[in-house]
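User: Predict the complex with adenosine-5'-diphosphate.
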Amino acid sequence: MTGKMTPAMRQFYTMKEKHPDCIIFFRMGDFYETFGHDAEVVARDLDIVLTARGKDREGNRMPLAGVPYHAAETYISRLVSKGHRVAVCEQIEDPKKVKGIVKRDVVRVITPGTVIDESMIGSAHARYLMALCQDGGRRRVGMAFLDISTGEFFVEERDADGEDMGVVLSEVERYRPQECIAVSVPPALERRLSEEGVVVTTFREEAFEPARARTALLEHFGTHSLEGFGCEEGMDTAVRAAGAALIYATETQFTALSHITGLSVRLPAEQMALDAITLKNLEVTATIRGEGKEGTLLHVLDRTKTAMGSRTLRDRLVNPLLSVAGINRRLDAVEYFCGNTAVRTGLRDLLRGCADIERIAGRIAYGNATPRDLINLMTSLDAVSGIRTFLPDDVPPEIADACGALGDFSDVIDLIGRAIVDEPPANLKNGGVIRGGYSPDLDELRGLSGSGRSWIAEFQQSERERTGIKSLKVKYNRVFGYSIEVTKPNLHLVPPEYERRQTTANGERFTTPALREKETIITNADERLLSLEAELFAGLIQTLAGYTGGFQETGRAVGVLDVHAALAGVALHNAYSRPEITDNTKTIIRDGRHPVVEEMTPGAFVPNDTLIDGGGDQVLIITGANMAGKSTYMRAVALITIMAQIGSFVPASYASIGLVDRVFTRVGASDDLASGRSTFMVEMQECANILNNVTDRSLVVLDEIGRGTSTIDGYAIARAVLEYLHGSGRQGPRTLFATHFHQLIEVEGSLKRVRNFHFAVKETGSEVIFLRKIIPGATDKSYGVHVARLAGVPAKVTKRAEGIIRDIGNGAASSGKGGPKYTQMLLISDNPAPPVHNPAVEALRRIDPDTLSPRQALEKIYELRKLAGNEEGSE
Ligand code: ADP
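Assistant: Here is the predicted structure with adenosine-5'-diphosphate placed in the model:
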């Protein structure tokens, strides 16, 4: 059957068999062609023309879609961003030198987690490949994260926590990997991962086997054990994940990846736990709606000057510290830069000259650095040496250590300066990269080629004079080499010794023995010139690859300096203050602001205080109308805590933060329609996660929890959760609890560490003004009716509503007297009432308030009133 196929098609099928899950980019001359089903996918996803040529294996016309090779990177990156994998199949012989079909082979596989071309990846983000592994008993889960572009590689091992693997999702939210490899992933997790934009790739089990994975790591690092990386004890599944990640990376990159020089361990005891929902809710690095940086804490804080600084800041933001000394070390650095403006601005000027040293180092080790990369490296290393001499001696340890880690690369600067021209072309294709004087051989060849060219110029001139053909030209053409071009009207002047080579539309081309001889010299010189330049460049890259470790360390140190200087700049610009970090469990904030909202309400943000002193105040119940400012206030407390623990100044006039081990935030009734779980189910799962993991050192922010179910259930659950968090004997976590269940305010009376707060509102006539100021005590008014009146609800209804509120108020205040039915309703959790089959209640249950317009809501109330009236008569 294959008899009719061309040899190239046979090659294609061989490649496809080797890489069945990849789109094969098959190099043919100046194009990458894709065939068959690949071509259909490429045509659809890249919106390019689908044609057909030749025959496929079955003898049908073969679909074909091609892209020009010089634009391939863009096309590949678009395919990869859509979750495809691309295998690049190159001609690995020079087509000019072989007869028949040239050999081809796959030289790279590009997957979402292993893209490294600069044009394909943004620089501010690390780009992680993640590997996931569970032990046989599914008790532990190991995760490895590898950024192939910089060589950063770390692992974590955690207790597994059930089917939906929240512990994995948290790390996914933290590090936002592009791709996750695993033997298999539970369907629920797989769905969540793909919602987060992570491509899940099934990778063979053998790579995750303990012995195989371990050997891969040991061989790669050239060590006898993993002890030096802290990976021997209790890190079995993490090591398996790391080994598999390395195997996968090596297999897709087809190279040794020598820039992956180490593996580090991230321990839960060293970093604040931030689960996926909390990171999302607080909009730390991404907004709730999507990827955009605007509106995030990262966006407010990221004033870094370098890609390395930006990546370091992002990493710090999702990994706040848990050590007073460690945080203070960073704060000292920020404070230093705040107080030394000249040093800060001088440093930032120098940082501006630093390209992405870490990634250039990666490309050097990988072997795909361009001539321009080397020039950028040289100027960056020059800036680095400027920084080393610029920073004074009396800087705090954090800065001194980073400064000490900046390498002295004067030999590299000198080498690149001697080897590469000032403004080299983008690639080596046409030469012109190596500077004169670097290699005597190269200079000689250039001389030869140059003198050959001037001989040609002189030859053209003398032939014009000799023959009298003024328009005679000596031209170069890739196929025919040099020839003398004579146009038709002048052909009669051609001397007899000219040998005809070719006829063109306008005239004819000739050569002479002398020209032929020079042509050979020039062409040979040019060819040798190009290959010598390539050789010299490769030698240079090899020398530079020996410095990989030093470049990486320097790059990281630049990132650290950049972050501190940037945070100082933000602190001054936004009037932040240095937080006090303590080992106790108090949170004291004076004039705290929400760092993001304050930027959106310039000059109008109302600061607020927070006091959770571990004694009388542990749980703050916050009431207030919709839009009063409850969420903003609570989120500000959480964000200030996170900022303090990454070592940043905070938006407050004073803050004292007792170390927080975990921040939990939950917003009631969040929509999770995509995953098909009911709102209430989601709320309760999130709640369970908090209650099961919270410690006395945690900070819990609950916003309208219990909203997703009926009032009675919601209230009961909210109250039970609150009691649990309050703790019976010892103190529980610092808790901020916003609620619309006004009945909850009475908890203050029965639990000793609960305090009520509310947001002040000013009423002037029919107007309600939110003052955004939090004040002690519960709110005594519901502005719902007020809002209803403003919305044009008939006075009869709003008056009646006020009456009902009064009745309920009496009932709640003097339980048992004024409002027996209501009291019974509230106590249902303590003393379950028999189920009531009331048509009004049934109808109420069926209502989805979020879908109703005010008018529809009003109609519903009338309807319910009618139903209730039928059942119980009038009141
Ligand atoms: P709630 O949670 O009580 O419904 P939000 O916290 O969502 O209210 O606040 C509603 C809006 O009020 C916010 O979007 C913000 O623009 C504004 N706001 C909140 N707090 C403040 C504040 N302290 N100062 C100024 N504006 C604020």
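Residues 670-676, 812-836, 871-875 have pLDDT under 50 and may be disordered.
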